[in-house]
Amino acid sequence: MLFLLPAYLSENTSISHFSPVIKDYIMQTDYFFVENEKTARKVVKFFAPEKKQSDLKLFLLDKYTENADIKEAQEMMLKGQDFGLLSEAGLPCIADPGSLMVKWCHEKNIRVIPISGPSSIILALISSGFNGQEFTFNGYLPIDKGEKKKQILHLENLVQKTGYSQIFMETPYRNNQLFEDLIKFLSPNTKLCIAANINDPEHEFIKTKTIKEWQKQKPELHKIPAVFVLGK
């Protein structure tokens, strides 16, 4: 079996916010596919502090991984070994490379078990006040300045034409630059929700304002995990 295990969005989140079954599944196997070894060890310790870190067998599964890179682990699964799949934050396989392994499991008739947990994308949407019936997650916007402007205006146009909420992200150290581009290129009356430090009991910041209002109150988002939502 492949357990799709959630990770916390903030290390400061209380363990009481999570289902006890997460710990049960972590204790059930020593074998994990992980996007980042250091983060994965912290997540395992958070949910199951009594589990020996020296027992963990971690296999890297990041955006560069191909099936050939994890062939050893796949052969173990074909022989009956259970594995867990851990994202760096939130649910695996959303803005995360884990789907490679999930797809392989379906092809090999290996059972996939999703475990409930937080998703920054969904939490940002439900906190925005925007359309939660029809929405699109657009991942990361282009780095190139011209392409980024084009995409921002395209998303704004989609909101106005369809009413679909448009969700996107940025690498935390580029959040401030993205915010400056948004308030520069978007129309003054367009509404933007910024959801940062989600699930952090002390530093969570979730606000929906028009671009005109955001221009008067610029948040500090440098190196802070954040999700951006355009809507109406």
Automatic annotation (TrEMBL):
The UniProt entry, under CDD domains, shows: RsmI_like
* Molecular functions (GO terms): methyltransferase activity
User: What processes does the entry annotate via GO biological process terms?
Assistant: methylation; rRNA processing
Name the InterPro entries on file. 4pyrrol_Mease (IPR000878), 4pyrrol_Methylase_sf (IPR035996), 4pyrrole_Mease_sub1 (IPR014777), 4pyrrole_Mease_sub2 (IPR014776), rRNA_ssu_MeTfrase_I (IPR008189)
Q: What keywords were assigned to this record?
A: Cytoplasm, Methyltransferase, rRNA processing, S-adenosyl-L-methionine, Transferase
Pfam families given in the database record: TP_methylase
Tetrapyrrole methylase domain residues are 26-198
> In its UniProt entry, what is this protein called?
16S rRNA (Cytidine1402-2'-O)-methyltransferase
Organism of origin is Chryseobacterium takakiae
* Classification of source organism: Bacteria, Pseudomonadati, Bacteroidota, Flavobacteriia, Flavobacteriales
